[in-house]
Amino acid sequence: MSDVGRLLDGGAPWIIAELSANHDGSLQRALDTIDAIAATGAQTVKFQTYRAESMTVDSDRPPFRISDDHGLWGGRRLFDLYREAGTPYEWHAQLFAHARDRGLVPFSSPFDAGAVELLEGLDCSIYKIASAELVDLPLIRLVASTGKPVVLSTGMATLAEVEAALSAARGAGATELVLLSCTAAYPADPAQSHLANIAVLREAFGVPVGLSDHTPGIGVPVAAVALGAVAVEKHVTLGRDGGGVDSAFSLEPAELADLVRECTAARAAVATGPRFGVRPGEEETARLRRSLWVVADVAAGDVVGPETVRALRPGGGLPPARWDDVVGRTFARPVAAGTPLGWDALGAAGA
Fold first, then answer.
1. To pair with 289 at 20 to 30 A between CA atoms, which of 54, 213, 239, 298?
2. Is the distance from CB of 37 to CB of 45 less than 8 angstroms?
3. Which domain holds residue 146?
4. Which residues of the chain fall short of a pLDDT of 50?
5. What local confidence, expressed as pLDDT, does residue 241 receive?
């Protein structure tokens, strides 16, 4: 079974911890982040494999700058941003080995042929196509030709573009495909998440669907798992106060651990179909449901009323719903306080 098959067959959702640019230019910080991820219960760590030259042109012209009004990276040159954020190729072997030593499955998003060649040399077992590259069908075909599972993020994509990407991947030999619903805003507002897309993608294309999330916190991904997402991808940093280019929309390790726990709970909560009545684990509470109890010592001929009978915990007596049927009736015999009321204790209705 492939790594993806094993991850999707597990009892917990597949959690993808994205290192991205949160190494902040330090190999040691990257290694420490992998250690922190491994301690949270996440199963995988993902990198991004590119050089600035493979992403854009070293140019000062306006098309090669982030728009000034962008909340995080406004006015920055694309080339400078990618040069700062990129994970050096010479780190990859050590990062992959370190992740495997910590029990994590490492994989990456390649952005060109050279990146794929590097990753193949590291026996990368899964490939991820980033949202902006979903329209790069030659890159998708190259990745798919490795025969490895391919995860495709769908931020900004139309359904037609998703169909074209899946068709390209299948045509090049990919047999295991996963889609990630995504909003490619950094950070994203939860109201922009459109989690209903998860069911649409699953029904339209018949493949497993997860979520690549850039919102703050863990609320959106937990909701996504409750709606059927099989995987959640979140950026992870050792500390948001470090000020890295991705830190504002990244989780700290303790938050990632919360994500793992709460997504697992969400999966368990929706894993079974509807069931009403007493369910496993409710037996003792069901025994304590209210019933009618005699609350004062009574003699034969005394009348059932609030002074002699009340609805109290536990069960054992007549249901409280039968109050209207017993109030005003007389006791047929003496009954001690603390006795559950049964029909055998009652005689004819009172005057």
1. 298
2. yes
3. 3-51+86-269
4. 350-351
5. 87
